[in-house]
Amino acid sequence: MRFPWATALLTAAVLIVYAYSSGGLLYPNTSLVAQNAFGSANPLALLFSLFFHIGANHVLGNLVPLIGFALLLERSLSGRHVVVVFLASGLVAALVFWVLNPSSFLAGASGGIAGLMTAASLSRPKWGVMLLLGVPLFMSVVAFPVLAWAKEASFSSLDQKASSLQIQADQLEAAGQYEAAAEARAEAEAVNATLTQQEATAAAEARAVPDFFVHAAGALVGMLYVLAFFRERVREGFEELAVVLDSLKARVRGG
């Protein structure tokens, strides 16, 4: 089995960009994301916006289906088609969003992932159905609960660090070490500022609403791509799915 280089490349790109925008923290710098989001104020960010995400839930909610459906499409077709579908779907979806929301901005891989989902599901319907059912289940039962725990741990760690620095500053000041105390207070203020920024970004992400037309446009591009170039593969895939469904029906009747 060949190495899924396209899936690995797209996954690495999303993770690296998120690490860059978040500075290694759980939530990104909102101003940095806004600078690289696509919109009327920043049309040159059309490509880069596909890899920037507004928060931890956003990036995780995109990363899991990206890996699953990109792997399926890469196994069914090739890595080159994965990259083409992702970029074409994402770019078209971003342009559709821009036309419908000229005063807003867009960041995230949702459009490209929607294209991968339809392309992969049409080229391998049996496995596509399993992923369409399994990915949301995995996200709700495993991924998002783990992320909620990580969020609580991260915020608690920052709060404890700020409190510890404040106590240290008070002790240094009581001992007459005023310069060291001032440094500790400044560091505590910086940690508190980081915590405030992280909480504000998390709250802003919670208020964000997914755009239906972004997903619809991306899905349409992925569907048209597969139907245009791999119609025979789609036909074979649905025949395979029909055999599976017939087998399940027979078992249900026989049971």
Please, could you describe this protein's structure?
The protein is mainly α. The protein has one domain: Rhomboid-like fold. The protein has helices spanning 5-22, 30-36, 56-76, 79-100, 110-123, 125-174, 178-207, 212-229, 231-254; strands at 38-39, 105-106. A two-stranded antiparallel sheet has the order 1-2. The two termini are 37 Å apart. The model has no long low-confidence stretch (mean pLDDT 91).
Set out the fold topology.
Layout (H helix, E strand, L loop, with lengths): L4 H18 L7 H7 L1 E2 L16 H21 L2 H22 L4 E2 L3 H14 L1 H50 L3 H30 L4 H18 L1 H24 L1
Antiparallel strand pairs: 1-2
Please give a handful of descriptors for the protein shown.
9 helices, 2% strand, single chain, Rhomboid-like fold, 255 residues, two-stranded antiparallel ribbon, mainly alpha
Note the overall shape. elongated
Under the CATH scheme, the architecture is Up-down Bundle
Number of helices: 9
Question: Quaternary status of these chains?
Answer: single chain
Helix content: over 70%
> What is the H/E string?
HHEHHEHHHHH
Structural domains: how many: 1
The strand order across the widest sheet is 1-2
What fraction of the residues are assigned to beta strands by DSSP? under 5%
